[in-house]
Amino acid sequence: MPEEREHYILFKLVGTTYAVKSNDVQQMEMVEHITPVPNAPSFVEGLVFLRGEVIPAINLRARFGFEKVEYDIKTRIIVVQRGSRKVGLIVDNAREFISIPKDAITPPPEAISGLSGKYLEGVATLEDTLVLILNIDEVLKLTDNKKLFEHENR
Q1: CA-CA-CA-CA torsion sign (141, 147, 71, 127)
Q2: Regions of the chain with pLDDT less than 50
Q3: What is the per-residue pLDDT for 154?
Q4: In 48-129, where does DSSP find H-type helix?
Q5: Which residue, 91, 99, 110, 152, has most beta carbons within 10 Å?
Q6: From CA 96, how far away is CA 79, in angstroms rounded?
């Protein structure tokens, strides 16, 4: 019986490898023009116009509490969709499509609690690389939290 595998897009953020399920990814684009939005939380870079659609763009570095850096030729926007909601995730680079055996994925360690733990669905080790698997539902749910927006605007 063949082993069950999940397909992922790998991306880098602050030197760490992350993965997002490929069936959540609509497209990947280079970062071009981002239109700032007034009074948005610091991790919301603004709006991007991609393939005829206006999509909010979230800087994952800022969302995860890392320092923002200038975009370069490798910076990508990964457009993810859950239900009717589409969001662009700005990452340091993304280019690899990979399948990971389901039994190679373990739950995040209990020591990772709080906000950072919510973002992770699992952890996989591929050869000598640790891959953190993103929980897209949590990342998108947190951006919808009205209290978070009100708090940031004070």
Answers
A1: negative
A2: 146-154
A3: 36
A4: 60-63, 114-118
A5: 91
A6: 15
Residue 13 β-bridge partners: 16
User: Which parts of 67-145 are beta strand (E)?
Assistant: 76-82, 85-91, 93-101, 105-106, 120-126, 129-134
- Six-digit token string for 136: 């897209």
For 33, 78, 135, the CA distances from 26, given in Å and listed in that order, are: 19, 8, 16
Contact status, residue 57 vs residue 40, Cβ threshold 8 Å? no
- CA dihedral for 109, 9, 92, 48, sign (positive or negative): negative
Look at the block and give the residue holding tokens 């995040």. Answer: 108
Please give the pLDDT value at position 14.
Answer: 94
Instruction: Enter the pTM of the model.
Output: 0.85
Q: What's residue 116's pLDDT?
A: 57
Are the C-beta atoms of 13 and 66 separated by less than 8 Å? yes
CA gap 50, 10 in Å, rounded: 21
Does domain 5-152 match CATH 3.60.10.10? no
